[in-house]
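hey team, just a heads up i'm posting the complex here instead of the shared drive bc the drive is being weird again. everything in one block, sequence lines first with there labels, then the predicted structure for the whole assembly after. its two chains so it's a bit long, scroll down
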Amino acid sequence: MTAGDLIVGGLIVLMVVGAMAVLWYNRKKGRNSCGCNCSGCSKAGCCGQSMVAIDDGSDSCEKD
Amino acid sequence: MSFKIALAGNPNCGKTTLFNALTGSSQRVGNWPGVTIDKKVGRIKGTDSELVDLPGIYSLSPYSPEEIVSRNYIVDESPDAIINIVDATNVERNLFLTLQLIDMGRPMVVALNMMDEIERLGDRIDIDMLSKGLGVPVVPISAKQKDNIDLLVEKIQEAASEKKTATVTYEKPIETAVQAAVGALRGKVPDENIRFYAFKLLENDSAVNERVPGARESIADAIAALEQEYDDDADSILADSRYSRITDIISEAYTRAPRDERGSLSDRVDRIVTNRILGLPIFIAIISLVYFIAMYDGDLGTSPGAWATGWLNDFMDEVVIPAVEQWCIDNGVSEALTGLLCGGILSGVGAVIGFLPQMIVLFICLVILEEIGYMARVAFVMDRIFRYFNLSGKSFIPLIVSTGCGVPGVMATRTIESESDRRITAMTCTFMPCGAKLPVISAIAGALAGSVWVAVYAYFMGIVLVIVSGIIIKKFRGMAGTPSPFIMELPPYHMPGFVSSAKTVLDRAWAFVKKAATIILLAMVLIWFLRSFDWSLNFLSEEDMGSSILAGIGGVLSVLFQPIGWGANWELPAASITGLIAKENLIGTLEQLITTDAIPDISDALANLLTPAAILSFFTFNMFCAPCFAAIGAIHRELGDWKSTGFAFLYQCLLAYFVSSMVYVLYGIGTGQTIELYSIVFAVISLIILLYFLIAKDPMGPFYRLRGGAKE
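-- predicted structure starts here --
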């Protein structure tokens, strides 16, 4: 294994782990991974949350 | 001091803009009603008070989900004070809600918004007189210009700490009936809201009748006396009395400047753009122009979007990737790691990022159209067409939202009252070309000689398929229903705000980059692995890619796509599958699978692989089949069960399949290409199936009867 292999391999691992960590962090924060930006969404603040019946008058955006 | 403040007002009166001005947040502001679906919470700048932005409503009657959310919040959560934002240019109509909010018995301040517009029109509003008439403080503001926001904060803090409430009184017979209702409700509802409940009891409000059973019956004599006095039903009497009160207040406080007899500029423009005959062609022309500016590259020249995308793609393909590849070779990096970094990650992610300039140009155009108020007119124009097909025009708002992203589009269906319309729109709004589909549109447009019509076709075919689906799905059991009423106010045209427009565009562009660096990157690594190894996990060279795991999966699926023109290449079905993770993946996957050193461009590679008819068929299927997993998840959340979600998934895929089949044959024959006989037969069968579902009154009847018979 060359030094180049180590550098490129490390870089790829870093990118993959970084991408997974961002997705995991967003999910934990209640942000969806839809790719939309929260400030550009009429449902901001309700990402990743399930809908509850709205005809009973309760809030339609509630945590799972 | 820390207070809980509610922000309430009519739809599209600048509520979200005021929320942003008060809290310093950047919630989405749309120039059409229905932007705020659920309540949002923020902290008022410079205070410890919490501000809750409620959905826009016209009244506190429980007719729509927005009205229920707002009304229940004020009743159940008892905010310390209410900011009632009122559109000063539409003050008569806005004050109807104001009078109802005053009855709620909470301290209140009226924020009279759009005062800059009033000044421009030359009108005058006597603020003191208005405040005296309503009995609550009135603060003239301009949420957009951030005028008087500090004064509003000061007044609302004051109102919340003083806890001073107001009462609007009406004619004696009405007050007598109200007092009778108050007596019947005493001890059964909170004292502070009792006047509101009394009015609702007289109006025969179902929620109040349920909450206090027998109360209405106990005041039957008082209601009968009231109705006899005015010779009308109680509900109408109360509404009329509110409007009379508003007229009294306005006549003293509002001086209207003489208006141009031809109407305002907005009125005159509206007469053309919402015209019964011209409205739709103008919409088609504007959308065509938008896509022309974003992606045209042909005989007439190169659009700014296409030029910038071409430059970025060339920079990636000719500078960045070769440089990294050379570095890997120089440093003895293994073939597999070089392939993964250059052929997988950089090529795949780079191909997607390459379309960013075009997306930015498209976003700018769409944001401008939305900000000036044109998209609200489009919803109005489309309402006529939707209504003709027994669908609600309200369904068009989620379609507009879906052109940005399908996920908020699906969620925006919550404002639709009719259960069947809501479910149908949630199942079908992802037919609209979202931002993620733009790279696919652009690549296919390139493969079909840079034609802008490909984009326009995707946009309008999306609308047509929503209408077709509305007709078809309404014939399924449990999906029938009358369309929701659609009341929509057309906001006056205004210049787009530079900062808010730029922020929206940058937000969307940044979201696209983040998605490319996360989901797309991970998908590209997975695709590279699947195409570089066989089932025994032996590393394969580029030439042996046909023996890879991905080729095996694509090969099995390719049989399905043989009749619609693109089943001969395993790469294409494989790319379609990866599009389910995110639609941009389609481009990244094609970049990895079909481009070569000789043909580095996806558009050229597609044109080399398929006939134009097959390209259009491939495009049609991928535009309209099931959306990405995130949107499927949103559909599941709205429909509430996996059975319906599965139906939506299957329906979208089948419809896309049938339409692709017809498009393949029609476009092929129309352009003189050779089409196989079995494809023609398949297209005819597809047409018959679609026509059967469109024309038959109960297309599923025989199936249900058969199932019923089998059960018996």
